[in-house]
């Protein structure tokens, strides 16, 4: 008596008639689980997942629950490999071995940095050797560098970046300066951690140029943190040339929480990366190790084929089309807000992808990071606007400058009304002579 | 204009009328998503999750997707703390700070062992200091010990355990012997990793006694790996007295994949544990670090209140009642099988919880771990029985001994028919006049072929055999 051991077909969302792109009303339907009372202009923080993909994910979840042993033996590895292969093609990697799937960029950072810690411990690196990171690196990555590099005796140098920023050159020259500081006293720069798109404040970094400089200056390894990357900006491993590159697929590529890829260039310089959660697959290569880190729900990692099908079938221009429309619209909305509030953008449009920084009126009196958090909660709870805010301390001599910026995102579910709602909320606060001192402690 | 920022009520499965325990038919309904064609007597490997809890989980998932920023700021930490508090009470920990929630025991092991690696690196431990583990420790834990302890210069000593095993004393004396080996040459035993219930072969270890011995012998830290623990055997932190203790909640406590707790005793001996995936919460204590390791689906960690409500409302005696009934039934089923196959159990019933090892008939000719994997696949694909098998190499001098054991589990969804199905499958394999045949198929895959009464019979038994090349047919013909 045979039981169900045949290969289960790939879950596919409902297929529309050929060449019928998704309509605005269908998009709203795909995202009808979003809170309709909220102008959700913060796709950057947690991303989004269409209903079709949630459905595909639940099919995978039930498949595991139905007969987990059969699933583990016959389905899981194949499914992960299929996802990795699609990602490899998307990011122009040479070989699927270079692509591992992990939970998120935070996990990828831990993988790269743990390797650095071992290198110090095992004498490959010397005490005082340097890791360079951007001052605007994501908080979790900064802590990870402290936990693995500083703790191991490595020295950390931060690249000071200007904000607002006016051109790539400003970033490139600061980066060179930081590398020089790193190489002082005869030390080696062992690792450069470079954001592809910084989180706060949000700026697209000229990573290709910075990686090139790292090669020229003899930096051992370059790790690009592109938490905001795939589905948002151009992600081409050959072009960028980094040793390690990570990006979340749940932010801008419609996957459910959570899934990211970690690219590790096959190269002469051996890199002995391991997933910190060690399973019986230890030693079989990072991709294989990461595909089994104990019993867990791997469904978010298995829906990648469904997502690509959804994006390519339903959206004109597929992912490229979405990226372009997101960029054009977020710039347009940013300029609309900056004009309405008489402020400015945090960077030129070419240094943005699908997010942009817009100055808030100085009269709101944003004087600390704490103010931005309270003001943000105020917008969320009293205006139905979800938007992250950034505090930019005034420089010496500056008077009445813009000290608060909003990072607005645009994704396919956003409407012009979302940004109008934000514009009007700020205008209402300004009209009422609101300042942050009015917010409760 | 206010948006939805009120505290969202806890998702509660449909509430039955008071004092109405779940019926057999309601249980089958809760687990109707299980493959009905499979006798699923392997709850130990991946656990199970009732439909009510899947539903509760999906409510949490949608809550996050609906407005993730609001969820992160207002719901997540509270929800995790609520789960931790429930677990603290369940396991009799002193303080909720001692309870961290992680993905699974594999992750918990990495957390404990990474701390050990730092201790070597930072000079707290010396090269050659010892970690002791059981020979039957889980494969992933062994690799983790290699990756963190051996790689750091630590020496690893394995406690050889007998199997079949007859009493706790056999385990205790081997453990003492291993500790003595560890303390030889003036080295310190820095860590003992002790399974509460070994995976394969499956035996309940006398952890309380072993922890006590560790204290007497000056072992620095004791880590109990109870992947099989909560919902399966008695899990009492005060009683057991370990420094670290981990158990999966998705195995025997009906949670969806995946969730485990890691208990870390608050004590004088400082233990600087960190989650290896470092977030901005680094330094705020392991429990807080573990509650945020980047954007992820935390829903499996948030359904613990719903699970406890389900278990306590619907099952007589709550979790204790389930544990007892699972134990009694799996022992009964094990004895039934051992009698039918004329073999024996791998340990006395008191050394079992809700799983038991049953010897398979020697004439099946299980001669390697590879044989057990193929035979297991054979049971899965051709008999609709899901059961893990263990290869026990014969000792010197042993002839015709039992070399294969099945680890059968019992959980609330199992029926007597599941075990009858397994009994009959084995009996069917035994009914053969041609003895044991091992043949290669066209991919060189070695098949254990039993139970055919004629040349035609063996062809129809397994359609995959039809793919064997002509050359193989010749070999078979010669063997017959």
Automatic annotation (TrEMBL), chain A:
It holds the Pfam family Aminotran_5. Residues 72-270 form the Aminotransferase class V domain. Gene3D superfamilies: Type I PLP-dependent aspartate aminotransferase-like (Major domain). InterPro entries: Aminotrans_V_dom (IPR000192), PyrdxlP-dep_Trfase (IPR015424), PyrdxlP-dep_Trfase_major (IPR015421). Keywords: Pyridoxal phosphate. This is L-cysteine desulfhydrase. It comes from Quillaja saponaria (Soap bark tree).
From TrEMBL, chain B:
Pfam families: Aminotran_5. Residues 72-270 form the Aminotransferase class V domain. InterPro entries: Aminotrans_V_dom (IPR000192), PyrdxlP-dep_Trfase (IPR015424), PyrdxlP-dep_Trfase_major (IPR015421). The keyword Disulfide bond does not apply. Keywords: Pyridoxal phosphate. Signal peptide: none annotated. It comes from the Eukaryota. The keyword Transferase does not apply. PANTHER family: HERCYNYLCYSTEINE SULFOXIDE LYASE (PTHR43092:SF2), L-CYSTEINE DESULFHYDRASE (PTHR43092). This is L-cysteine desulfhydrase.
């Amino acid at each position: 008596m045979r039981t169900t051991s045949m290969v289960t077909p790939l879950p596919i969302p409902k297929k529309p008639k050929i060449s019928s792109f998704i309509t605005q009303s269908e998009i709203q339907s795909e995202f009808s689980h979003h809170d309709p009372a909220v102008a959700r202009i913060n796709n950057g923080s947690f991303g989004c997942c269409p209903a079709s993909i949630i459905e595909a994910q639940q099919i995978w979840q039930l498949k595991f629950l139905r007969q987990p042993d059969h699933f583990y033996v016959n389905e899981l590895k194949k499914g992960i490999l299929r996802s990795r292969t699609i990602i490899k093609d998307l990011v122009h990697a040479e070989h699927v071995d270079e692509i591992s799937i992990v939970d998120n960029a935070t996990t990828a950072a831990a993988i790269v940095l743990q390797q650095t810690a071992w290198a110090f411990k095992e004498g490959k690196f010397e005490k005082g050797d340097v890791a360079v990171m951007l001052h605007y690196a994501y908080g979790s990555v900064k802590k990870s560098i402290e936990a693995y590099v500083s703790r191991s005796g490595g020295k950390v140098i931060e690249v000071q970046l200007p904000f607002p920023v006016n051109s790539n050159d400003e970033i490139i020259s600061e980066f060179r300066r930081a590398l020089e500081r790193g190489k002082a006293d005869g030390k080696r720069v062992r690792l450069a951690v470079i954001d592809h798109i910084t989180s706060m404040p949000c700026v697209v970094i000229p990573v290709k140029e910075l990686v090139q400089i790292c090669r020229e200056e003899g930096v051992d390894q370059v790790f690009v943190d592109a938490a905001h990357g795939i589905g948002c900006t151009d992600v081409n491993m050959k072009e960028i040339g980094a040793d390690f590159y990570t990006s979340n697929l749940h932010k801008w590529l419609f996957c459910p929480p959570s899934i990211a890829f970690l690219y590790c260039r096959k190269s002469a310089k051996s890199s002995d990366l391991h997933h910190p959660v060690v399973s019986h697959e230890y030693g079989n290569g990072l991709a294989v190790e990461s595909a089994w880190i104990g019993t867990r729900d791997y469904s978010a990692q298995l829906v990648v084929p469904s997502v690509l099908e959804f994006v390519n079938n339903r959206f004109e221009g597929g992912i490229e089309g979405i990226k372009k429309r997101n960029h054009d619209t977020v710039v347009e909305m940013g300029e609309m807000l900056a004009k309405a509030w008489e402020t400015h953008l945090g960077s030129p449009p070419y240094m943005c992808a699908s997010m942009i920084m817009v100055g808030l009126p100085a009269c709101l009196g944003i004087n600390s990071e704490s103010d931005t958090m309270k003001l943000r909660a105020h917008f969320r709870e009293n205006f139905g606007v979800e938007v992250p805010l950034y505090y930019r301390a005034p420089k010496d001599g500056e008077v009445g400058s813009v000290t608060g910026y909003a990072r607005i995102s645009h994704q396919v579910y956003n409407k012009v009304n979302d940004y109008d709602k934000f514009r009007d909320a700020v205008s209402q606060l300004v009209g009422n002579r609101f300042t942050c001192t009015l917010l409760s402690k």
